[in-house]
Amino acid sequence: MRATVEELSAKRPVPKAGEDVVCLEGLYKSFGPLKVFDGIDLKFRYDQTTVVLGRSGTGKSVLLKHIIGLMKPDAGRVVVFGRDLQELDQAELENLRLRFGMLFQSSALFDSMDVNANVGFLLYEHTNLSEAEIRKIVREKLDMVGLKDVENRMPEELSGGMKKRVALARAIAMDPQIILYDEPTTGLDPVTADSINDLIVKMHKQLRNTSIVVTHDIVSTFKIAHRIVMLHEGKIILDETPEGVRNSTDPRVQSFIRGDASLEAVAAKKTGEEK
Amino acid sequence: MRQRSMSMIASVGAMTEDTVAEFGAMSLFTARMFSWIFRSFTRWRLLAPQLYEIGVRSLPVIFATGAFIGMVMAVQVYFQLADLGYKQFAGLLINISVVKELGPVLAGVMLAGRVGGSLSAELGTMKVTEQIDALTTLAANPIRYLVVPRFLACLFLIPFLTVYCDCIGVLGGYAVVVWIYGGSAHDYWFYSQRSIETFDVLAGVSKSFLFGAVIALVSCYKGFNCKPGAEGVGRAATESFVLSFISILIINFFMAVFFKAFYGAIWGLVPRGMGS
Lengths: 275, 276
Ligand SMILES: Nc1ncnc2c1ncn2[C@@H]1O[C@H](COP(=O)(O)OP(=O)(O)OP(=O)(O)O)[C@@H](O)[C@H]1O
Ligand SMILES: [Mg+2]
Known about the structure:
Radius of gyration of chain B: 22 Å
Largest interface: A-B, 22 and 14 residues
CATH topology of the largest domain in chain A: Rossmann fold
Largest sheet of chain A: 6 strands, mixed
Low-confidence stretches of chain A: none
Low-confidence stretches of chain B: none
CATH class of the largest domain in chain A: Alpha Beta
Structural class of chain A: alpha/beta
Structural class of chain B: mainly alpha
Largest sheet of chain B: none
Bound molecules: adenosine-5'-triphosphate, magnesium ion
Oligomer: heterodimer
Shape of chain A: globular
CATH architecture of the largest domain in chain A: 3-Layer(aba) Sandwich
Number of domains of chain B: 1
Number of helices of chain B: 9
Strand content of chain B: under 5%
Radius of gyration of chain A: 19 Å
Strand content of chain A: 15-25%
């Protein structure tokens, strides 16, 4: 069950830069009467950071959960590293997940374990590293997210922002090739938020991986994104470079990046007239 | 009128469909769990905390359950028998009821409340706070990681707790009969020993394996399928208690029928202790 670090890296071949590592093909998803995805086609390249924007409740978290296989689409395929998730068996899926890191919107720390066990979870479960080695890596990762001397605390003794950062440390514990960040800066003060942005940029420089970041934070977006996509009413309505987004004339996009609801109203009226 | 009765039939139909679907889902859940047990059993590091939580922490409530069952049986039985001139059989009557029925069933019900409730609330909370999803993303199968150790702890410990409950019940009955009512200690033990057979004790204990399995499966399943929010967690805990309780009663009935037939087939159905 436990593997050496070499065995693990054999299970995680490094893709070429620019290779499409995540492909969403014709994704449809509904929860009862609520249609969340209405035909989504997206590709995420290796060595690229993509920010996913969208209003609250448009399905950004659901999108990330499809990419890592926590949810299954009603129709369409999710292809990761060239493999269709639907066709993988349990063991293959677990191997695949060792190449992922996911930061949950709600942090989702294990509240029966202390911070050390949370951050080191993957290392304890899947490697044969010694306790001391794992503790060292955990300290390093906590240091990266700006936390010190919290290893022995339980999650309930942490503030919301600290939980988020511990969860981030857990997500990056094994240097994943695909990192899914669900609102990494929500609930943090501006200074910490900025250091998290720096961290995302730094992680990317260091690992050259695929980062997919869901956020509402426009400042962060322009700081970290190579590419920005926007989800609206079940469809991708924007897929641009940050430059392209700044120059976009779509009122739905402009209202979002300026935080101006009146533009949204204009957009709604306009689409109404078109119909 | 007609429309109303149609919609009633429809809703009964829907309910049946839901029940069947849930039964199917639960069977699938059980099958998955067993496949993990056979593939990799479990690790001590995961099992030990469950043994403590389910076993050690249940001792006080099981003590109380056992003691009061034995004592109340003594109160109910002693004078009835004394009136008939059979007070020497009080111990026998108390102990056979405790060992065969009351001990296992009431210990099972108690544990369905204590253990089942806390398991489904714990797993339900993990579900609604996405900790179960987090486990999956960290390449740890939640059934193997969470359900298997809890199931095994229940399976091994609930029979132990049942025997413990039986013993305390027997002593509780003794305390009332001998110390309070001044009955004979010799009679209490002598007639019990003469007519309660190993078979009776084993019948009680073997039921409790099934009770333990049912409590664990039902409460883990309900926790895993918890609806969002605090309300969802509360409902999962309640539903798991009710369903475990009913299952215990049903299993108990069929086991009683089974054991009667089994006993009759092997030793014949003669009244015991009174013969030869
Ligand atoms: N498991 C589920 N069952 C039913 N509905 C769900 C489920 N998960 C999400 N939804 C619904 O899908 C929609 C999209 O949810 P999602 O969490 O992806 O939104 P979001 O874009 O992440 O919003 P936010 O920015 O507020 O986090 C919501 O309307 C939500 O109610
Ligand atoms: Mg979300």
